[in-house]
Amino acid sequence: MGRMLAMEARRMSYNTHVLDPDPDCPASKVCDDQVVGALDDPAAAALLASRVSAVACEFENVSLDAVTAAERVCPVYPRAEILGIAQNRVKEKDQMVRLGLPVPAYAPVRTQEDVEPALRVTGLPAVFKTATGGYDGKGQAVVRSLEEALTAFEDLRPHAELLILERMIRFTKELSVVCARDAKGEMACYPVAENIHRDGILDVSIVPARISEPVAAAARELAMAVAEGLDLVGLLAVEMFLADENDLLINELAPRPHNSGHYTLDACACSQFEQLLRITCGLPLGSTDLLSPVAMVNLLGNVWVDSNGEPDFAAALTVPGVKLHLYDKKDIQPRRKMGHLCATAPNADLALSRALTARAKAGG
Ligand SMILES: Nc1ncnc2c1ncn2[C@@H]1O[C@H](COP(=O)(O)OP(=O)(O)O)[C@@H](O)[C@H]1O
Ligand SMILES: [Mg+2]
Asked: Which residues have their alpha-adjacent CB atom under 5 A from ion ligand 2?
């Protein structure tokens, strides 16, 4: 994400500095300079902030101490308070409830004694999650009985002090909306993405989502209500479930560019990365207009593993409308996001089949 943000900044001739512990990190090749330091090191964050006019966070699991240290030196988007909410699933849901916005039934779990009463709130089946630190489906278990919930508690408890039980939603679709809000409170909202996850990891995003116009409008309203309610300045991705009766429920928030918004690079007038850059630099918001139906498919490390380290991208790029994005990550892991393919087409179904065909040709 940092690399893609820095690429937009480079296009517009801004100087960028990145904070990352790895001197060879993907963004380092695109940025003008780097502070090599840990994301939980306040001194490193303050040093970064001292070298720039503004800081954008494209990752929410940075320590709040580090972000606060940077905030003392220059503006940070989003601010630490927002990151603190998005880092903790319980705080996130509490905040949505306070704003009167819909979430699945949930209950915090700290001790084994909390499990049974929490299940009375959520019902079964339920999804047990760590409140902090989880991503790409990590730190989660679906539980179908009290016994399974108690076992999951034992498994998850070593990874986080606070856990959460959520009602398992039988959704018809998963949706997400990326919206942008600048320091003046102006907002811009991208089209709704229809997301398909595999093993808890985003696999495919299809835009426009294949839903009715009233549902799409409601999803966008919901995302903007969250951004306004949090008084967020920056980007916000809101993941949602579309449940029965066209009910929308908020699953989680990401106050940063989002994987399901990568399609904006190839299919929108102004991408999510340019948008964050504009907000960070005090420029007016860009147009979120969709220029073409589009589908994005992720390229996980398994594509490399299955093709003995040599995916056939030349074959993938024979498919019309396809663009390849690689993140220059050195360490290949089967479940790690290494890149993505985007396909534009006259309609969403064709875009999806193009993107899937391209990935299959690459070996994934
Ligand atoms: N309460 C739930 N009901 C149904 N499915 C869920 C629920 N929570 C998570 N999931 C599934 O697991 C995926 C990942 O969960 P999520 O909470 O978004 O965590 P993360 O993306 O941070 O790993 C979701 O996109 C969805 O497919
Ligand atoms: Mg998610």
From this structure: 239, 252
Ligand 1: residue whose CA is nearest its atom 15: 137
Region of residue 323 (left: phi > 0; alpha: psi -120 to 50; beta: else): beta
Please give the helix or strand (H or E) that residue 348 lies within, else none: helix 348-362
Q: Is the beta carbon of 197 within 6 A of some atom in ligand 1?
A: yes
CA distances, 357 to each of 298, 348, 349, 361 (Å): 13, 14, 12, 6
**Residue nearest atom 13 in ligand 1 by C-alpha distance:** 200
Considering the segment(s) 173-362 as one domain, its CATH architecture is 2-Layer Sandwich (3.30)
DSSP output for 50-61 = HHSS-EE---S-
Measure 202 CA to ligand 2 centroid, in angstroms.
8
Which pTM does this prediction carry? Answer: 0.97
In tens, the pLDDT along 184-194 reads 999 999 999 99
Ligand 1: atom nearest CA of 170 is 4
CATH architecture of the domain formed by 2-77:
3-Layer(aba) Sandwich (3.40)
What are the CA-CA distances from residue 346 to residues 67, 252, 320, 321 (Å)?
43, 31, 11, 10
Atom of ligand 1 nearest to the CA of 197: 27
β-pair partners for 93: none
Ligand 1 binding pocket includes 139 (Cβ within 6 Å)? no
DSSP 71-105: HTTS-EES-HHHHHHHT-HHHHHHHHHHTT-----
Residue pLDDT, tens place only, 145-181 = 999 999 999 999 999 999 999 999 999 999 999 999 9
Q: What is the pLDDT of residue 56?
A: 98
- Pocket lining: 196 vs ligand 1, CB cutoff 6 Å: no
CATH of 105-167, one of 3.30.1490.20, 3.40.1000.10, 3.40.50.1980, 3.10.20.600: 3.30.1490.20
Whose CA is closest to atom 11 on ligand 1?
200
- Residue whose CA lies nearest to ligand 1 atom number 7: 168
